[in-house]
Amino acid sequence: MSINVFVEDPRLVSVDSHNSPTNTAPSNAFDYSCAAESPLYQQLGLSCLDNDEVLALMELSPVERKHQGVFFTPAELSRLAVEKFSYSLGDGAILDPACGSGNLLVALAETFEISPSLEVTLSEWNSRLYGVDINESFVKIARKKLVKLALSKGAVPSGEKTPGEILSILSNVKVGDFLKEYKSYCGKIGGVIMNPPFCHIDASGEIAWTSGRFNAASLFVVYAAEILPASGRFLGILPDVLRSGTRYAQWRSRLLKTADCTMETFGSFEPGVQVDVFILQGKIKYAQEEVIVEQVAAKSSPITLLMEKFDVSVGPVVPHRDKVIGTEAPFAHAKILPAWETVDLLPERICHAGRKAQPPFVAIRRTSSPKDKYRIVGTVVNCSELVAVENHIIILAPKDRSLLSCQRILDFFRTEHVNNYINEKIRCRHLTVGVVKGIPIGGAADGN
Question: Is 0.70 topped by the overall pTM?
Answer without folding.
Answer: no
